[in-house]
Structure formats: structure tokens, C-alpha cells
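Q&A log
Question type: sequence-to-structure
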Amino acid sequence: MLKALLVLAGLAALLAAVTLVRAARHEAAALRDFPPVGDFIEVDGTRVHYVMRGAGPDLVLLHGSSGNLRDMTFQLMERLAQDYRVIAFDRPGLGYTDALDNPTITRQADLLAQAAEALGIEKPIVMGHSYGGAVALAWGVSRPEDVSALMLLAAPVYPWDTPLSTYYRVLSNPVLGPVAIPLITAFVPDRVVERNVAEVFVPQEEPDGYAAHFGPPLTLRRVSLRENAIQRARLLAEMTALSKDYDRLTMPIELLHGTADDTVSAAIHGIPFAQVHPTAEITLLDGIGHMPNHNRPGAVVEAIHRAAARAGLR
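Response status: OK
Response body:
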């Protein structure tokens, strides 16, 4: 029995060592192939990665879950930079921004608001896609005097009743997560992430060249898997609490939502919010899924123009 236990312990140690080596190699390849594309600013010891382009009224872009700022720089940012000074941030723990110990949507908003202020950004329009929309809402609720307008793109607004997936429950678990995450980083090939990215675009297709630009391997790094899972696991409770303070949102709010979005339903979020909130206006895109920033970028630009006009910036 003792010999068998020693053999099992040895095999477990070998598996752990192989896993750590493979995970480190996979992460190194991701960093090599998809390096930072912007600059860095430090806020209270946290390094924040950003890209800034253009001139005009200030506009902040916030990406969604499992993403990074490359999602915004694929095509949308250059179009917007013709009319705005646009800054895209990596959210904490994703891309190249440092992780936070307690990455609530309000803490994320506070960090990025401080970074924007330090970069000379004044009363920006804040646009958030999907989870980034929740951070934009938290930014507006906690700092209403510092936001000219909000642009919520396929964003959650109200609580929902869909249970958290097993994937996020495992990865956010304080015991199971530290075991599962290195195994995913070590042994899950990049093509699995690329396939999952393509599925987010359904019923539309992923644009040509998107995966090569976006950098799916960056999402498989251990810190990003852990941080993203924790953020997703806590989002429902945070949105439930935040929704009680929406009366603080006095700035113009534009919502853009696809009617075929199965990830964040317009019927649960955008439509009822626009029906009751006095400063909110919604535009529905018939047949469009969860990625209108890529499948209907012109509609996104038009919605931002409307937000800017309503805020007196155009």
C-alpha cells in the first residue's frame, strides 16, 4: 500500500511539474505573438494598458468578458478616431492590465476612471460592450458628474435567472479553480478558444482576420482565466445591487442591442431599461447577435454620435 501511494504521489508531482512547464510555455508564446499594442499608466500601483487615438470629444471603450482592448482596435477605434479622442482600456486581469484583488465592476470603473483622468480625459462618453457595459454603468453610477454620456452595447442592465455555467463555477471556486486553471492553460489548444470566439458572433460570421488580431491565446493565461471567472461569477449579485442606484444616471444613455443576441437578451435588459429610464434611448438591430461592434460598426458609430449630440458635444 505504501509503495502504491508513493507511486501515485510521484505521478501527481510529475503531472504538476509538466503542467506548470507547459502552462508557462503557452503563456510565453501568447505574449510573444500578441504583445502590448499601446502604452501603460500606473494607478495606485496597478499598471493599466491603453491605446489612444484621434482628436475631439473624449470617448472611452470597454471590452467584454474574456477579451482585451484588441477587440476595440480591430476596426471600430479607427473609425471613431476620425471624430473623437478615443481611449480603449484593457480591463483588470485581462490583456495587459494588472489584476485587482477584488475586481468588482465598481472597482474596475474607479481604476479606469482614475487612469482616464490621469491621461487628461475629461467627462468622456463611456461605451461598454457586454460585461464592459456593466462597468460603464458602474462608472456612471459612481461618478455621474464625470461622464458626459453612456453607450451600452449588448450590455446587461438588470438581474437575470440563467444559472452560472459549470465552467465559471469551477474556475472561480477557490479550491477547484487553482487546480483546473493551470491544466486549461497547459493543455487546451488555441484552436478551442478560436472556435469559442467564432461562436460569439452567431448568427453572423466572425470577420476575416479578427482572431489573428484579437489574440485568443491571451485569454488562456492563468491570471486571465482566473480573473475573468471571478468577475463573471460575481456579476449577477453586483448588477442586482447596482440596479437600485440607476436614478443617479442623469446623463444621456444610448443602448444598442441585436434582436438575435442570445448572450445578453434585449428583452431582459435594454428594452425594459429604455422603457422606464428617462434619459435612455434604445436602437434594436434586427437579426444581429452579440457583436454589433463588428457586424454593424456603422450603427455603433451612429449611436455614439447621437450620444455626443445629446450631451452637447457635437
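Response note: The chain has one domain: 32-310.
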